[in-house]
């Protein structure tokens, strides 16, 4: 695997692949890699001839008081994992390369970015959209892969790609979970034993609510029950909501739906989501 930190070298490497008409996939990450990221890499390898993974802890998507300074950074371990997984190129820009002095632009994706994560983390999706647009222009991949764990992020990127005419296929990869159901996340390492055990309430509460709703149960009651379960487990709940699949528009009982939630346990903010499978007719 090649590791590249300079934009000029990245352009040369990608241009050489283009000359051979190879199909290039990009997996954008913030590092501290786990099996969730590796599922994106595997999907990338299945769908492309060459795989680029970027690692950049993007300051512009962190709000004041968030965990930018503590966010786990593990360059060597990440590099070994990516080499073992057959990744071709690791793109490791620094903050100066991404945001040189005088950088003064931002991408705002409309309605889909404004509720839920957008409302709880003001400016977050502007930071995500801006850095992802830059990564798209730097690597010019044929496809890019994102996890369903960050469900709203996936919807925001899809909308940006449509609205701004990026010629890039966006592939969403299902959420990878621990054996007890907790979604893999770089932030799980913040959880000490007791909080880690309590955290399983998040996927469980969503699973129970999704089953209730799929069987025709009362939607507000199911959401309230999930919220109560989370609070009893020690979570401070930001939101538990039901939305239309893919677009996150307001819930429509006739359309496929998804439950989305964000909650903090012992100061660690976790997000999760689950599909509401249509019940028997
Ligand atoms: N459990 C998972 N299953 C599938 N994809 C995932 C999972 N966790 C992260 N991803 C995806 O990996 C990509 C990079 O995510 P990121 O580096 O922020 O990791 P993360 O574990 O989500 O970290 P964080 O703790 O910041 O949420 C994103 O597209 C994200 O959706
Ligand atoms: C897409 C992303 C790499 C942009 O910084 C980040 O939001 C993430 O890791 O999900
Ligand atoms: N995986 C989303 C990145 C973030 O929380 O900033």
UniProtKB/TrEMBL annotation:
Group of enzyme by EC: ligase
Broad class of the protein's primary localization: cytoplasm
UniProt keyword Nucleotide-binding present: yes
Keywords: ATP-binding, Cytoplasm, Ligase, Nucleotide-binding, Pantothenate biosynthesis
HAMAP family assigned: PanC
Protein family according to the UniProt entry: Belongs to the pantothenate synthetase family.
Record's protein name: Pantothenate synthetase
Organism per entry: Stakelama flava
Lineage, highest ranks first: Bacteria, Pseudomonadati, Pseudomonadota, Alphaproteobacteria, Sphingomonadales
Gene name tied to this protein: panC
